[in-house]
Give the backbone structure.
Amino acid sequence: MEGSVEETAKAVSNLVVDSPVDPSAPEETISKNALKKAMKNKQKEEERRRKEEEKAKQAAAKASSQSQKPAADDEDMDPTQYFENRLKYLATKKADGKNPYPHKFFVTLTILEYIEKFESLNNGEHLESETVSLAGRIMSKRASSSKLFFYDLHGAGAKVQVMTDASKSGMDEVEFSKFHSSVKRGDIVGVTGFPGKTKRGELSIFPRSFVVLSHCLHMMPRQKAAPGADTTNVKKTDIWVPGSTRNPEAYILKDQETRYRQRYLDLMLNMEVRQIFKTRSKIISYIRKFLDDLDFLEVETPMMNMIAGGAAARPFVTHHNDLNMKLYMRIAPELYLKELVVGGLERVYEIGKQFRNEGIDLTHNPEFTTCEFYMAFADYNDLMELTEKMLSGMVKEITGGYKIKYHANGLDKDPIEIDFTPPFRRIDMIEELDKVANLQIPKDLSSDEANKYLADVCLKFDIKCPPPLTTARLLDKLVGHFLEETCVNPTYIINHPEIMSPLAKWHRSKPSLTERFELFINKHELCNAYTELNDPVVQRQRFADQLKDRQSGDDEAMALDETFCTALEYGLPPTGGWGLGIDRLSMLFTDSQNIKEVLLFPAMKPQDEPCAKVAATSEV
Amino acid sequence: MEALKVWTSLSSSLPISFRHLIHTRHRITSLTFLRRCSSTTASASTRNRRSSSSSTSTSDREAIRAIRIKKVEELRGKGLEPYAYNWDRTHSANQLQEIYKSLPNGEASDGENDRVSVAGRIVARRAFGKLAFLTLRDDSGTIQLYCEKERLVNDQFEQLKNHVDIGDILGASGSMKRTEKGELSVLVNSFAILTKSLLPLPDKYHGLTDVDKRYRQRYVDMIANPEVADVFRKRAKIVSEIRKTVESLGFLEVETPVLQGAAGGAEARPFVTYHNSLRRDLYLRIATELHLKRMLVGGFEKVYEIGRIFRNEGISTRHNPEFTTIEMYEAFSDYQSMMNMTEEIVTRCALAVHGKLTIDYQGVEINLERPWRRETMHNLVKETTGIDFNELGNDLKAAKEVTLRGLGVGLENKDKSAIEASPSLGNLLNEVFEITVEPKLLQPTFVLDYPIEISPLAKPHRRRAGLTERFELFICGRELANAFSELTDPLDQRSRLEEQVRQHNEKRAAHVAETSGEEENLKKNEDNSYEVTLDDDFLTALEYGMPPASGMGLGIDRLVMLLTNSASIRDVIAFPVLKIQQ
């Protein structure tokens, strides 16, 4: 435990250390200076001297002095020392028989509601007859004198100033000053008082009572030193809307490791971040409403399966002790959902986690969220229209227009614009490949001739394809190279070969192709959908073909699911099926280049594991 | 509808030899018959019968399958695709029943607006020479297809006779008519086989008795028993109602990880898996609590997650290894306000499903009218057993004696040893509660103020030492929800979690000692053989300060069981986990 606290504190303090105060940030500088001045004023000479001694001691040994009193209120302090002082402060409170963690604070308004209700006050106007109670986290503290403190109170994505004056506090001045010197940046407080505006026009609350509800025991990371950091950041984040660009490099808390591992700090300090997750929630709500309005039924299918089917991926394995049974985490809900359509639920969907035991990178997390839906009596043409309607409608509702801005080429380059105006471009996979690369891909794609032809093409264009060189894999590489690269605005790549699509129905007029589409946006696959293969005889044959690929070394080929095949024998109506990656869609809406930006708690490498241990295992 | 009833009552219990009736001509008033296989079935299944005089259903199935695959080929031979691509449906069965509910018997309605098109599964059929009645069932209900030879285009009547089987999925279009007998029908002009089924539909009675098969092949269960699908429709409605309720109160839905480095937030054996590229063990979450609380630290004041939880424990009518909960957390509130919230959610769901608050569960009438009873655990135990734990003092041994004496001779052995094994007064009280009070809590009851020893994440009670501000909701003797004023003091939290780990390790060590040398036993019966680790990241988060808050977890499967009058959790989970088939 000690270790982890210390690490946290260090990560945090590094931020502080790296950030010299920029004198060109006027307001911020004033408040910091004011704060420091106040600290100095209110502390006795003796105390200050001792503090300096302590600092010197810490710099030398970084050892924490046990004899220290918890009075120091200095953010230049060593984080470990700061933490211990806070612990001691709590201990004295408890020793005095006071509960430092009150059970309940009655809030009358959220901070946002407060702002809406009182922002029309005139400058200098006070409503002393009103009584309101607000609660939130203190993100900034300024002392104007020992009798007057200013705080920024943050909550629910908004902030309001607290102007607390000894004369209205019901405490005497010494008590007041002592109390407020114990209130730290990061503490969660409840204030009850009256609304008003300062002469300079800042909406504030003037407390008659002020209670600390929960204590921040660690030093909060400070505003970084970018010009005008604090105020600019808050203002900017207040107006950040989905579909516009973000700049995480300008965040108060920048360090990615800390941001992802301690998401709560990220959320506290970088105001935009909560908007990312609100946007994500809006996306999911929109999909749910869209499908509910079309009479789709939301269902839940198992996340632990006897066979991991419905996709080609390496599954997680686990074990049920009591049943002594090996179980796989699902890699797709597809087969179960189709079984429900066989059972008579004609329109079903599931929004949920999938799991793939694969590497972690900018677009992959071991668990991710998808929406899959299945619609009886519809085909892939219907689904393309539906997808256009859903996505363009969603972009319109959430961002206000059809176009979003996205840093596709890195934060240092200009963002691109992605246009969701329907209809989306459609390109026929094989035809387009022939055209773009000037090829004549053999019509019989299952032939050796086709395999050889494609292998030669890859060689010719220097397109790397790791073995095994199955036709499906070769084609995938070519499509990635020649077609996906052109798909910046939403584009359907349609009519994939049968060999690439074991669960899709053969095309009604184009031999050896299927009725399938993938939607690409910003060169990434977002949706995958097809007219479902519902001929059980053909389905079994496709599984058998997959098995051949598996035997030739492609461990991403699909496994046969007997229960599913039997279900098809009872009759699956003509059905269109569709899957969407919700994380990737959230990335587009929030100008995120890393999937970790849109996951509250992304999978991270273990922190505690020594590198040596990893190396040792890899040798085995 | 009549036809359906006939089918469901006779259905596949009809021997295949009935098929000889197929070509016999009957008048409408004469004997009706069911056809499970059409004419070409005859020769094939006769052949098959020889080899299976014991008439196993498997061989019948195989025979039927072979015949139907042949029909698929025949249809393709005629240029017809027995697995169609789509079908433009104008109405669902239920919509037609609604629109034409006042169409008088014996009348047709074939104006411009009466061109309709339906699609669904054929679940029954009767044929009489130049006339056939098919019952078509879709998601919404059933409707009869009225097929006259003269009216059908081309030679479709022949196709109907020769290639359509019960179980096939058909699309049909035509106009509307109500028969003399009052059956609303689509007067079919043309139809298409949309999906040829290869296997015969199961018999309702057989399906009902073969419980295991019902769960293993849920789709078969749903085809044979349409009311099964209703449970899942209601389940969707309940989940949607919960979402609507909490969103209207400003809660934000979030997703927290299933795969975790340490499984915390509850006491349960977790599933373990291994991540290849990270080279580490991961645990499947046993609760969403600790991550949702981090969100409160991060400044979200009202969050919830509806999601899957995993516990590596035995299966029963109340337990499935994966189940669904909602957990919700609200800053600046306490367990009192969470009780109101729980009442609000459950009653809204009941109204959404039943339209009323008095419901039947397995023969017991449950009254969900608010407010629900709120009583402390101490008082409930006192009321039921006469034992007042407030007066027992601090001597655990003496308390156990009083308890055993008080509960008397009727005590089962396992209960007796549970009492004797209680490591603290709080555990003892809880044991007595579970044994004597829990089964009696049929009407909704909030049980309040649990002992601190069994509530490691709950805040100490503001007035009563040794207790926490926690409640559980019981309905029908089952725990439905669990909630507390959340513990926000990081130091208190740390020592409680450390104590939990210590106790777990003690138990584990004790069991290892007991069963040493018996590896098998250890593996099989050991309840405590898994590791419990401290979630240090969570404790660090608390050190940054979590606002006073209350949180609640509610088991959605159990709520659905209650509101759909389902006896087993397997009835409300589409694909429950089952033992490996022998």
Q: What stands out?
A: The first helix of chain A runs from residue 2 to 17. Chain A has 19 helices and 18 strands. The CA atoms of residues 492 and 519 of chain A lie 5 Å apart. The radius of gyration of chain A is 30 Å.
